[in-house]
Amino acid sequence: MMPSMRTVKELKDHQNNTPASSSSVAFCGTARCYCCSWGDSYDDAQAYAKKRGEEEGRTFIPPFDHPDIIMGQGTVGMEILSQSEGPLRAIFVPVGGGGLIAGIAAYVKRVSPQVKIIRVEPSDANTMALSLHYGERVALDQVGGFADGVAVKVVGEETFRLCRELIDGVVLVSRDALCASIKDMFEEKRNILEPAGALALAGAEAYCKYYGLKGENVVAITSGANMNFDKLRVVTELANVGRRQEAVLATLLPEKAGSFKQFCEQVGSINITEFKVGVHRVSELEQMERMKAANLMTYNLTENDLVKDHLRYLLLFRWGGRLNLQNEVLCRFVFPERPGALMKFLDAFSPRWNISLFHYRGEGVTGANVLVGIQIPHSEMNESHERASNVGYDYALLTDDEAFRLLMHH
């Protein structure tokens, strides 16, 4: 019988003395075989592989949550210590299900306990961080798929037990920072890392910068090779944002002669790329406050993923006379990359409601980020939520997003 675990929502309900959901969450590992093509996510493939093992009497081999698997992954720690020259300060390990870091920590802490083991997770796939925070394994309702090599909704039972005892800290990394580290590695070594492989590198850089470490020996494990051209396109667009060399700004220009020239005069010597502002120092971006003094209201949207993924591509289309559509609701869906995914969505929503906006943003084999506008009367919102849930794709409402209101409805 699988040990019990709870979702993040259930834990918050429990902390607020509110009865938690009665639904249970089952979890298992996955076999690296033909079963991996089953379903829309890593977790779907895991469940299917285990089910096939039980039905057909096959041996199920988990990818991380087993002492033998953990022991094998611990040989990475042995190799690191055997090849290290001089004192080693820390080892940074990308974390999905936790097998790699559990194995490394188990070996390194026995041989060289002074070496810190730091786990690094994507900020939108931080199941280990949340589990350690709450003191028990938790399942994410949604998991970001950009770093697909670590896109796991819940960590293993044995890996969690070891990490509770042996791990020294955590660094959470944004998608922009991952892209910046991929670019850095390519420029320095001509190697192309997958996002999960760049995870530890980005975490090590953030950790060393935060603590002001210089002249120290640290190791960042760059594992995996899940990279394709769709994902590379996203990396090239976001790398400079992650390095704070580019900013995304929105400026409201008055409809009068000379306003665009006034805007360019206020930008000054800062390079404009695709009408994003190229900055080399934070102080240069702070100087953009002069826009407000010139009555050119400017908003910094650099941290807004909705803008970077979708809205900047849609402005000309929307400004062509399609503003303020009645009852328009904005949603972000994650479509699986497989035939029939779009029709499954359309069967649920069309022609029941008008689809007013659709922007597809592929990010690789794990799924596509899709921005959808749908005209739904307020009285029919409950029905729309039910239909969205039945489709089975991760989704979120974005209508109240500040950037959406600014750029699409101003």
TrEMBL record:
Principal cellular location given in the protein's record: plastid
UniProt catalytic activity: L-threonine = 2-oxobutanoate + NH4(+)
Localization in the cell: Plastid, Chloroplast
Enzyme Commission code(s) on record: 4.3.1.19
Occurrences of domain ACT-like (ranges): 329-400
Pathway(s) of this molecule: Amino-acid biosynthesis; L-isoleucine biosynthesis; 2-oxobutanoate from L-threonine: step 1/1
Cofactor dependence: pyridoxal 5'-phosphate
Record keywords: Amino-acid biosynthesis, Branched-chain amino acid biosynthesis, Chloroplast, Isoleucine biosynthesis, Lyase, Plastid, Pyridoxal phosphate, Repeat, Transit peptide
A single BP term in Gene Ontology: L-serine catabolic process
Any GO CC annotation of this UniProt entry: chloroplast
One example GO MF annotation: threonine deaminase activity
Superkingdom in the source lineage: Eukaryota
Pfam assignment, any one: Thr_dehydrat_C
Keyword Transit peptide in annotation: yes
Region of interest: Disordered: 1-22
Family according to the record: Belongs to the serine/threonine dehydratase family.
PANTHER family referenced in this protein's UniProt entry, alphabetically: THREONINE DEHYDRATASE, MITOCHONDRIAL (PTHR48078:SF11), THREONINE DEHYDRATASE, MITOCHONDRIAL-RELATED (PTHR48078)
NCBIfam families found in the cross-reference section: ilvA_2Cterm
The protein's name in its UniProt record: Threonine dehydratase
Organism field: Trapa incisa
